Amino acid sequence: MKLAFSTLGVPGLPVPEVLALAGAHGYHGVELRAHPEEPVHPGLSPAARAEVAALFRDAGIEVLGIAGYARVAAPGDDGPVLEEIRGLLHLAHDLGAPYVRVLPGADPEQPAEEADAVAARRLGTAAEDAAALGVRILLETHDSHPTGADAIRILGPVGHRQVGAVWDVLHTWLGGEEPAETYAALAPHLGYVQVKDVASAEDTAPLPLGAGVLPLTECLDVLARQGWDGWLCWEYEKRWYEEAAPLAGLLDAGRDHLTRLLGEAV
Fold first, then answer.
1. For the chain, how far is it from start to end, CA to CA, in angstroms?
2. By C-alpha distance, which of 185, 161, 162, 163 is closest to 172?
3. What is the pTM of this model?
4. Within a 10 A sphere around the Cβ of 86, how many other Cβ atoms?
5. Contact at 8 Å (CB) between 206 and 256?
6. Per the CB 3.0–4.6 Å rule, which of 56, 124, 133, 175 could disulfide with 147?
């Protein structure tokens, strides 16, 4: 498995400095948070996109994915959501990223069946754009659909190879789903896995990997037993928790922790 980290952990950091961190600490890729407050977002000009892509190529670091905020199950018209997804797909294509991350984002007042159908319809439509651009859309286990069982209610009806899943280990755990259950649900669709650690269900401020309660050992055991060899991406949520320790000082220990768990799993 290859290791990456998300720029959610280094909010606002210029791309050259992000790449320097990845190279210095042994990470093979970076998940880019696509938001206007970040250096990389869908509003970048063609020249700026070419520059970012060149920086990654020269550094020998991969753009794992573009982490967007399109909410595919949210109420409202399809048009704005599809337009947002298309913008993310074009950005990923221009940067050479294989994946775009989207969120479920259903309203709590929506009937589950309606939210699932809305999300499946939008993802099915966007899948054709994704196929044309050679990018895959991945629905993260998050918010209204925290578990693999929740996500598969959307992904199953879509049934398109360009639409898959990101397994966020925090949200499946919060949803009460065992790692083996999550993998069984998502295996045919799994793009990559977001790892992290927290103190408890009530205190989800980011911790160094291995310092909290999330079942990282069990997750990696399941993946290794099944022969899965994709990406593990450390999503350290520094952007939402300013008091959290800087990610830069944790990257070596995080890499070593994941490497050790993978070695023990094998």
1. 11
2. 185
3. 0.97
4. 18
5. no
6. 175
